[in-house]
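Practice problem: predict the structure.
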Amino acid sequence: MRIFITGGTGFIGTQVVEKLKNDGNALLLLSRHFNAPNIISGDLSDIKSWKAQIERFQPEVAIHMAWESIPNYNSKTSIKNLNYGLNFITTLAELGCERVICTGSCWEYGQQHGKLHEDLPLKPFNAFSAAKNALYLMGKEIAKENNMLFIWTRLFYVYGPRQKETSLIPYIINCVEKGKKPEIRDPSARNDFIYVEDVAQAISLLLKKCRQSSVYNVGSGYPTSVRDIIKIIYDIYGLQEQYEKVISQPKDTSCDFYADISKIQREVGWEPKTSIKEGIQKTIDYYTSNSDAKVAEDHNC
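Answer:
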């Protein structure tokens, strides 16, 4: 399968690219900082400059994961990324691409509680989630008008190797490595943490098996508290005695939700395989064996 990818050199994208390569697909990536036989050097602000290269490649599928300047969630950045995405989807339609997969965010649901399923009303609460929601709504209409399949994935809290250092799990690992006490605002907060390799597997299966426009949650299917994350990390380092000193008193939290993944399980047979403890161990192994590892260039929430 010929697949064109944006965001393929980022945290999530590198895992997706590796999975798709191993599956034997022909890939063409867009990158601002890399140049190689299968990479177009350019960015989404100037599609005209590299449109001819995509046209020669004739992608059957495109995967749009790029979102510049994360974790900057302000309106200016969000509008810029929304326009980039809409122009990109329009270009794909003009070139006759058959399918496009985009990565959205669980933040599109708003600050809700409990199990979140794909049919819930969307309640974006900041510029970033509003822009993602707008890209989803407009993107699927552009695709429909051009007989192109449009698949939208709502990713929950993805973690793993190459995640930006300010994210929760790398931050705590870094604090432990340096002997510092992590500053945790609310250890009682519970989110759905999903290992990055499982996300890559979900996208791969959607490419292979999904033959209709739809939206899918991609998460672990259960909530994990920040408190539990910290305990797992301290246990792995053999610092059980220090754990209680790190955790402050629990607070009431407004953050307590997780993904209903029954739709993607039922329709494409995807199941997350990596437990939270196993995923954290793999993440620690990566950072401890790559002490000079740099954060990837493009990120997606």
